[in-house]
Amino acid sequence: MVTPNHSYPLLLLLLGSLAVVSVVDSFTTPKTYNFNLKSSRSKSTAMMTSAGNIELPSQETLDSLLSVAITASKQAGEIILGNAGGADVLKSKANSRDLLTLIDPLCEKTIRETVLATFPTHAFLGEEDVPPGKEASAAAIEAKLQQLNDADDNDNYLWIVDPIDGTSNFVHGMPLCMPSVAVAYKGEVVVGVIHDPHRMETFSAVRGRGAQMNGEPISVGQQSDIGDAIVAMGSPPAEESMKMSLAALPVLMPKVRTIRMIGSAALMLAWVANGRLTAYWEYDLSSWDVAAGSILIEEAGGSMTDLNDERWNLRTRKICGSNGGNVHKQIL
Questions:
Q1: Are 263 and 39 in contact (CB under 8 A)?
Q2: What pLDDT, on a 0 to 100 scale, did the predictor assign at position 190?
Q3: Residue 142: helix, strand or coil by DSSP?
Q4: pLDDT-flagged residues of the chain (< 50)
Q5: Residue 165, H or E segment
Q6: How far apart are CA 119 and CA 48, in angstroms?
Q7: Alpha-helical segments (H) within the chain
Q8: pTM for the structure as a whole
Q9: Can you give the pLDDT at residue 22?
Q10: 10, 25, 33, 4: which is closest to 329 by C-alpha?
Q11: Most buried of 26, 99, 181, 304, CB within 10 angstroms?
């Protein structure tokens, strides 16, 4: 183990030693999933899990969802590129590090209109619709999921969107910002798209079909030991999350090859999916930060969990995505 004299994983030991909020996400009812897709081109499909069957849309519907998600992402990406030199801050949200520009709501409006033009009955959750703060974010996803509990199969879809992930990067003209678009069906993310307009790289995944970049299959890295891992983490605006990130640095840095802070959760998750990064962890993130990246990592062969190693879901806020296996266990 990487922590001598005991068997406790690094981040769990860190969180416990600081006597902070429990690692187990209070909003999460975790389940362990073992996906085994049986597909049909014309009928709904079923996924076998330890909790039973999870019904999926038909393959034709998944194709349509993916196509619209890619189109909407690229349209927002064009807006971002058109303002790539930087943007004025309209206002700060939770604090001076949590920014909003005029372009964020424009990108979200573009994505929303594109989605609803094809799927007018689908629910939509965008970051710019929600007041700042983790309580408001958690309440927003909870309200949407509760709303969908009463919906029939044709309306049991939720689009989860971050119009510009990496707004601080965007404000300062750094090409590390992009839209993140996911679609959940009956509470399970089934489609995810992260389009990086600066590098013209479109990461996409459909549940059960694997992950791709620009139409070519991708997979997570092959590192099997934490000493070979490039681990990403955030520089979050919230005070509690910031303290946890800073406290983790001296714990993780001696154990890994290097640590990167890129400033975009979407990009870091996508880069885990295609092997540029080995892992990415964050103490507190919203559903729109993670939803698209979560399916990318899982479909690329990696693990996406909370900090207690329970599979990520839309209510999870403390996250770790990695290439899985031994590295994931060592980081946690």
A1: no
A2: 97
A3: helix
A4: 1-8, 13, 16-42, 48-52, 91-99
A5: strand 157-165
A6: 27
A7: 10-17, 59-82, 103-118, 134-149, 167-171, 239-252, 265-273, 287-299, 325-331
A8: 0.84
A9: 35
A10: 10
A11: 181
